[in-house]
Design goal:
The structure is a homodimer of 143-residue chains.
Chain A lengths: L3 H14 L9 H8 L3 H13 L3 E4 L5 E4 L8 H8 L27 H18 L3 H4 L9
Antiparallel strand pairs in A: 1-2
Helix pairs in contact in A: 1-3, 2-3, 4-5
The structure holds a DNA duplex (30 and 30 nucleotides).
Amino acid sequence: MLSKKTKYGLKALAYLGNQKDRKPVQISEIAAHENISQKFLESILLSLRKSGFLSSKKGKGGGYYLLKNPDQIYMTDVMRVLEGPIAMVPCVSLNFYESCDDCPDEARCSVHKLMLQVRDSALAVYRNNTLQDILCDTPKEVK
Amino acid sequence: MLSKKTKYGLKALAYLGNQKDRKPVQISEIAAHENISQKFLESILLSLRKSGFLSSKKGKGGGYYLLKNPDQIYMTDVMRVLEGPIAMVPCVSLNFYESCDDCPDEARCSVHKLMLQVRDSALAVYRNNTLQDILCDTPKEVK
DNA sequence: TATTAACCCTATAGATTTAGTAGATTCTTA
DNA sequence: TAAGAATCTACTAAATCTATAGGGTTAATA
């Protein structure tokens, strides 16, 4: 299951991506528009800022804004920050690899065999989508 | 993340699939061989039996055995029983659909747009794999 | 009839998720 | 320089999920 953190994070990024300009948007506006608990969203936006997707401005007229163009923001990176590993088991993870302590031989492990394929297929989707591609009214171009 | 239930369930199915015949195999044997908590495995095998993948025999010489040939056991079905929905959000689930109460328009939802692709790609993998395909020493045939 | 092994029910520690609360800090504007 | 607006930080808490343990019951076999 996708965590609400990821779901809200994606929605917030999309909301910012749909803005005409890059003027700061307040947390309260995003929260209201996307039906998100404001305080929860606050912590999500913070982690998106710390990982370099967003920047923020304090004080009056402040808020959050995208640091890059939507077509430069890859879902692979966003998902890894919000949801964590793309792989469903650590032993097939590219960025968060860990061997299973209960499994004597990865090469002969059924779970490994299957989850490797699942990881690759998910990765293909995330690599093929930028924030631009999932904005509303933006039909996905076939590459 | 893949739950241990699913991981153990897959391993148990694979263990049974690797047997030469279909004689009942005891829970204790599978648990020992695959490093699984016996009690936990018990409940997993029970749910696999109730969903029609396995059958069991009580008493001496009893145990669990596969009801079908490994090449007739599709990962799509196994995953749905063990892990639940294949989709990461209910609003893109084929078998467990639920609309999001916080989302006014699915067609214009970024999360929906992305997760639909992820579901399809995962589904493609699960549909293309039977238990036979993930057994050890069984190279996956290209279809 | 004794043994064996699946079956079934209950409880629980621990982790994770999803927030809510309170206050501090920083920036902008008047 | 004061006031207000907004982010930032830290602590807490409820709710759920996960993984496992315990113990008694039922059915099959020898």
